[in-house]
Specification:
alpha+beta; elongated; three-stranded antiparallel beta sheet; homotrimer
């Protein structure tokens, strides 16, 4: 992942769907986990207003500001905390060879300190 | 799930226990995941006071209110956000054919926009 | 786990790494889950300032205080709520027989009501 904006929500459902198809697994799980500690993964609705609401909530709960972490020279303390609140991973069911999501479930990568290259691990397990 | 109240915490530990027994799996995991995006799943104590405290905390952090999401005609923005904070899934260990919970761990379905039919997926994997 | 302080963040990455090695699993997942309902598990950076920031955020969002739960004689309502916000488990990928973490990812046990014996379950699944 390399987002043009420092903070951004990216719908990665298609990428997860492809990875599940490639895995050849018929029944099992796929783990989707952000490997960098200032990004998260969550499942919610693909709706622009809601995405703004989510970012506003996170900014309200864990605002940009002065953090102890910044004594190291970093300036992304809020990004670490936002990732904590969002959580950094989901485990999704695979049924009959397909990603088994509810009617409105979409998978999002939540970037809180982007504009640089980051990785998400997708790992499937099953039969 | 179809809760009589719009917001409700439902203890689903027995249902998960049954599903594990039916699966025949001796060692593995069971994923419990809310398939609708205004509900969550969590593990905590079966204690009425605590359940009130949890709902109050969520109402405090992500209150009913005016959200961008409501421009679509919806009125459940807070429910989407509460689900984000609670998280929508847990993965539980299965050991010797049984759900392997700690002494006070109970599994809850957290409904934030109910009074209609919703699904929770239970999927077990293992040997 | 038995922490000297009532609230403490303990880096358990080495313990998880050992458990993965012992499991003999080459490709799969390891579930790390706090079995007591006043403790959590999360993945973030090993940096002292950040650890203070995380504890301050949690104290700010779910402070020590009067809770309904305390009518039972308990005094740890805030600890139950903090665990909810942190989440109580992570699922970590195992690749080529090793714990597959990102460059800065470290696994933490978050104790919110310690000074007594508690358990964390580590359970690996895969081939």
């Amino acid at each position: 992942m390399n987002t043009p904006n420092r903070k951004e929500l990216v719908n990665i459902t298609d990428k997860v769907t492809e990875a599940v198809a490639k895995s050849g697994i018929k029944e099992g799980f796929v783990l989707v986990s952000a490997m960098h500690i200032t990004a998260g993964i969550f499942v919610n609705d693909e709706e622009n207003g809601l995405k703004k609401d989510i970012m506003r909530l996170l900014e309200h709960l864990a605002p940009v500001g002065d953090y102890e972490h910044h004594k190291t020279g970093e300036d992304n303390g809020d990004a670490h905390l936002k990732r904590m609140l969002v959580n950094h991973q989901v485990t999704l069911p695979i049924t009959k060879g397909k990603l088994d999501l509810g009617p409105w479930e979409q998978v999002f990568y939540a970037e809180f300190d982007g504009q640089r290259k980051k990785r998400v691990i997708l790992k499937a397990l099953g039969d």
